Amino acid sequence: MAKMPTPEELLAATPTSFPKEGWMDTKPDFHPGSFCYPAKTEILKGLGFENAHDWAPDNEDWELPENWEQILHNSLQDALNKHRSLKVFMDCCVRCGACADKCHFFLGTNDPKNMPVLRAELLRSVYRKDFTTAGRLLGKFAGARKLDKDVIKEWFIYFYQCTECRRCSLFCPYGIDTAEITVIVRQMLLDLGLGIHWIMNSVNDCNRTGNHLGVQPHSMREIVEFLCDDIETITGIRVDPPWNEKGHEVIFITPSGDYFADPGIYTFMGYLMLFHEIGLDYTLSTYASEGGNFGSFVSFDVAKKLNAKMYAEAERLGVKWILGGECGHMWRVVNQYMATYNGPTPPNMEVPVSPITGTVFKNAAATKMVHIAEFTADLIKHNKLNLRPERNNHIITTWHDSCNPARAMGLLEEPRYILKHVCNNFVEMPEHTIREETFCCGSGSGLNAEEIMDQRLRGGFPRANALRYVHDTRGVNWMGCVCALDRAALPPLVDYWVPGVTVSGLHELVANALVMKGEIPRTMDLRQEDLPFPDEDPAASEEA
């Protein structure tokens, strides 16, 4: 990765005007930092993509198959036949521009082709030429254009600058979902053997091992053992989570980033401490060791395949329902596609009922899956947890509404309810940057690659700018979220734009405040950093 410019230099380099020529005549610019590395040929072949081949985005010739035009025509025809929504999205846009300034990538780059309306037009113009009478007869006058190799390159550049966050769809008067358009175009590119390494390598690992990191079962358990060692150091309590065991009520599935990556590991430690404290009857799985779904970034068919392991393992282990961890795209898939992908649920599964409070999670009746934030908020509401929020008094936290849980499932109030019970100092970011209108981290949909850090920093600037406001005006030094990709992408973004702010998952803060029965006096938080307000003695902790 090239040396990054300073924030001031990056902002100064942002274009202040649009190109003078029309968008159809503006060719894509390939330079280092503008594109992701291509997927490896052997990986695409192993996943069954027929036209996998060696190529490079900055080469003039991408070595496309001889019949590439027909392949794309057939691919688009198939998508139109399979997805009624796509045809609606292609036909109903009136180019009103309501979405134009809602995209974080447009705001960060000032590139007109990053306007959602124009990004979709990159496909819509080809659709008009091949699939509408007006387009065939009138061509450019009807907004149609012929498919050529420059169009393919344009798709590759701009549909990999869409994070599928769906903020644009919130403001579209017709509800056009650009994220679905993005998935379909990426599938079409894959039909030509054109994918990116960061996504397809993760898809391959999940296809092979059950998780995006490619961690083998024995390594998974070893990693968790290390985390249990840390919990014992902090609390004096030995947590011993069950693995692959039949006969439990619940299976817990979370993104693999929580097992392995900093700061996700602290979130995972929080899960383990919570489950131990309430005596949850659960098991972990080394097979269904991934809740996230990178397949959702490239193909509905791939997403369906990777998603299947959750129900398969729930059936094998005989659990009644699934408790899911802090993830983003996992929950978009669960709430919007799971019943179509892999339903109906196995016969052994039931509508989730909290074994601690008796609450029936009716919203999960179809999927049999409950979000950990819903579960924990319910525990707090029923006074089932002993919490000392003053352990987090050195924290002034704000909340980043991760795109998919916020816009795809409406998880808005539960995290805030939890935060207000485990932290005494909570500050909201400005109104139109949170909740349903939240800004993306700039690295969603598999765009967390190091080689495009420049783009990621530009795309994440609107979120960082809102964070900087509350940092400067209210002293915010912490930002929580419920997405594993956010926990990976936000730390470098925040360090760049708003240094001095820490990023964490929700259940790290829960575990810091949680008073466990029989624990030693707490002097450290989950990161083993000194608590400014350490416990005086166990009795004081129990009585607080």
Provide key terms for this protein.
single chain, 544 residues, mainly alpha, Glutathione S-transferase Yfyf (Class Pi), Chain A, domain 2, 25 helices, 46% helix
Helices, strands, pairings?
Blueprint: H1 7-12, H2 41-46, H3 68-82, H4 84-92, H5 104-109, H6 116-131, H7 133-138, H8 149-159, H9 167-171, H10 178-191, H11 197-209, H12 217-235, E1 250-253, H13 257-260, H14 264-278, E2 282-283, H15 300-317, E3 321-324, H16 329-336, H17 338-342, E4 369-371, H18 372-381, E5 397-399, H19 403-409, H20 413-422, H21 453-459, H22 461-474, E6 478-481, H23 484-497, E7 502-505, H24 506-513, H25 538-543
Parallel strand pairs: 1-2, 1-3, 3-4, 5-6, 6-7
Helix pairs in contact: 3-4, 3-10, 6-10, 8-10, 12-14, 14-24, 16-19, 18-20, 20-24
